[in-house]
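Morning F.,

Quick status update on the modeling queue. The single chain you submitted on Monday has been processed. Sequence for confirmation:
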Amino acid sequence: MTWEKTTRTPIPWNRRWIMPETNFLLLAAANGSNAALVSFTIYIVGVFVLAWLSNRVLQSKSFLSEYFLGSRSLGVWAFALTFAATSSSGGSFIGFPSLVYSHGWIVALWIASYMIVPIVSMGLLAKRINQVARKTGAITIPDLIRDRLNSPAVGTLATILIVFFMSVNLISQFKAGSVILQTLLDDVPAFSMLSNSLADSLAGLPIVGSSEDKPGYLLCLIVFSVAVVVYTTYGGFRAVVWTDVMQGFVMVGGVIIMLPLTLMAVGGLENATRQMAEMTPPKEVDLKITTPAAVTKEINIDNNTWLVSEGESGRRVFRTSARCKILVGETIATRQDNAIRTSEISAIELTYQPHIDQQEATELDIPVSVSVQKATAYASGADQPGAYVTGPGPSASKNGGFLPITLAISFFCMWTFSGAGQPSNMVRLMAFKESKTLRRAIFTVSIYYSLIYFPLVIIFCCARVLLPGWESQSDRIMPEMAKFVTLAINSPWLAGLLVAAPFAAVMSTMDSFLLMISSAVVRDIYQRNINPQATEKQIKRLTYIATITVGVAAVLAAANPPQFLQDLIVFTGSGLSTSFLVPVGLAMYWRRYNAAGAVGSMLSGFAWLVTTYAIGYMKTGKMDAIQPGGFHPFMLGIAISLVVGIACTLVTAPPDPKVVKKFFYAEK
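Structure tokens below.
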């Protein structure tokens, strides 16, 4: 092992294997400009202006209907883009790119059905939900099924399930927004100083785990959460819709701009695919990092630091996955692992030779040497060229690969139908103005999704060639690519707009979920069960308190989120669908359906989904459900919910004829 202090040499533009990852913010600071940060700030200011304008409208209308449904007056663009933007969450712009980067072209099959989601989600239930909601004056989904089935118990159960699943989903959205903001600010000196101060002040608190590894993330989490909670609380549903429209254009615009920049950087799609066909998955390693002598000042080694070993076995290149430091008087780097310090530093080792040959080490204050203590190959795809361009795709933990054919079929069906079962989508179906609006919105959203998801697959397959070593933090690949491609054309201001695209996706979902949860608490628990005579002033005050409380609770949970936020999104999406798709669908179209059937449908779907995830977690230690027959549990969950719902309905008394007449016969 040789001791050397290596510096990172920029690689010329015409060397297409891998381009330098010089941070554009550092470059901008050197030139006396923070153009990206300025353009991003302009976007955020626009969001708050829309919240202020919507609050002005709110003051002149009925609080409940306006705050939670925008007075049921959405036109084509507002309805289409608020539906699309809410569905295109942090999963679409953070979790989905992470999967593409980690597993390759096979992820295109994983998302293939998303372009027909609006046809099913809107076409299946929209018109009927809108009719029933207008007839009953329903403001929330629990409102809707409570009135349709004439059962407070059904409404209460629906409220509990919504609060549970959406609160869990909020954790993933808070993580996504914080990761994006951190990527934008990482090299701003003031941000680094504040992050380190926060790490010191939070040291030892169990709620944040090891703050040493993530001070920047925690600071961004606080800032981001305050921004979203404030504008959602202040503006209500109309603010959410107006910002969704703006964010919808930002999202699709960001992707459309990013695609040609990426193809230009990688040298064309053919070149990118050829290189991906030669790649092998990296290795997960534990490193020991040492110095030749005891250090006289503390040395910090950030995560994502490149380290190079030149030894008898040849050149080896590693990228650290954890923040560590060499304390004064010591020679070995250590990191905080809960209550103890350990010298095992997790990292990713590159295995693709062109990347190994061209990647230089990050410059440190002192030369270091690295040795591998433990190396773990991928469970599927290890040492196999072509793993990233063929099925089932490489996987670090699954022997069968990322997407075997049975799971591909499951996700094709799940994305298609799960969107129809999402209460956050259903509540928008209660707010459009007329049937013509619905027809045009279905077409608009289908085109919108096509303009987002296909380009994202191409962009982040190319990212495997351009930005190696991000497997352990692949949720950051979207904002990192935005920074990278704008640096390549020397336009840092554009990076702020591109980073705003995933940020917009997260905000457009979070605000909707916050409103859904607060409406469930205020309308469905307090007003419908505790205080039916509550005044508008009381409801308004409780709504603001509920929104803020839910936001704070989600922030505390997001301080220690799972590594891959897409895991949470799939869990909550499939959980809501197995709990709500069948009962809402049958309630809208089957006259005989009753409260017992709805309770049976919701509880059986919920119990099945949660049980499969609980068993999977006990087996693997990860948020990964067992897959009976190789299929995602969503498939069987929907079938169980349907069978139990029908059975419970048929063995219990039929609904009151007056209720049936009200909802299934035209008024004379």
